[in-house]
Design goal:
With 469 residues, this protein is an alpha/beta fold. It has helices at residues 10-16, 78-86, 98-101, 110-125, 174-185, 187-204, 229-253, 294-297, 308-316, 318-323, 342-356; strands spanning 47-48, 54-55, 57-62, 91-96, 129-134, 210-214, 260-263, 285-287, 290-291, 331-332, 359-362, 391-395, 397-405, 410-417, 424-428, 434-439, 442-448, 451-456, 461-468. Strands 8-7-6-5-4-3-11 form a seven-stranded parallel β-sheet. The radius of gyration is 21 Å and the shape is globular.
Amino acid sequence: MLRAILTASTAVAALLAPATAPAIAPTTAHAAATATVEDPGRGIPPLTDRQGRVLTLRGWNLEDKAHRGGQALTGITERHLRDMRAQGFGLARLLVFWDDLEPRPGRYSRGYLSRIGRILDWAERHGVKVVLDAHQDVFGPAFGHRGIPEWATRTDGLPFTPHPDDWFAEYFEPAVQRAFTHLYEDADLRRAQAGMWRTLAARFARHPAVLGYDLLNEPMGEVRPGEDPVTAAGRIEREQLTPMYNRLAGAVRSADRRSWLFVEPTPVVGEGVPTGLGRVEDPRVVYAPHFYDTAMEAASDYDPGAGWIEAYERAVTVYPERYGVPVVVGEWGPPDSTLPNMGRFYRDAMASLGRYTSGWAGYEWCYGGGYCAVGATGAFRAHKELTAEPYAEAVAGTVSSAVYDAGRGVYRLSYRAARHGSRLTALSLPPGTWRITAGGGAAVGRRTAGRAWVRAVPGSRVTVTVERG
């Protein structure tokens, strides 16, 4: 995660600073128009499920970096999934580590696969969809972090100096950068990475909780002499990441033909720089950038006048418009949500994400401080309750509009019901009392805690209103 570009990385941050853009007008409510098939908005198509319903995904990352080996993933419990669902969130991006999955070449941990399966079972029980994220931080354990195994780490003897006060700066250490080059270019490491993904896909292809696979978290690479980081990022994305994603897509598809493939740019895109990624030749690709601001990651408050959100949105929509793929933001959220402007940040961010994405996963669902969504008691930490609002998880039809007025606590959905296939539209509701009305040949059906379903006449024009009681 792009979290800590502090004093050691100020030169990089200066190179990547976004251009100033007009400030967002103050808002007391936000309106998020959902992408549709007939009117996709910016030309970005929606994400769909296996029944053809238009999806909106909202949720959080789940991680356990503290435990390894036989204890790996034990820090994630059923409570995580149950509490997320109770607050209206239906997506989990689950961090999995290659070094735990394949501790020795060709020897996959059955225990680790079983623990992933247990979390997926909990997710299914609580109605949460899961993206399995092949996560790396600073490449992996060879540099004191998690991700690519030590046996797959090649540095050519180049130096590495830890940066305990600014771990993201470690990505620019020569040994780490060379390790990425070998991962992308060495034939045996390419085969090993593909084998890892074949193993995961073969094990979980039929699990009903699995939505898709995030092929590599925040990929980085080697900056060549004379290159600035922005130029290097574009070259890495074009010449190394694009072929890697195509290779890994083939590996996954040998075992799983249906799940979505999530592909990420380098973290530079978070600074308002369009990605250099090329086309990934697969019909079910999701563009999955992250949404972090360098200044806020370094503990600054949100500055509404800096134009960061606007610059990010302009940059991040270029790729999905060009290649016609949906967008799901895989990580976002500041490390300190208590600062004075953070309420404004969450309102502006939610509005922006609603304009062009099919959903997002905040960082992270845990019980504590910092990035955690909730504290030890399970109550939202400051301002993070603004992420919990009514929305349509799955619409059986073509969405015309989906708007939430946060000030009034009113959500309105309009759609043309599908003529074939599923007739059920699923709504997600935060805790509280909500009144639901449906018109245009539709009726509100079954309700459970945090969810409701609307059944429509095929081909009808449906309106749904959800109001806080």
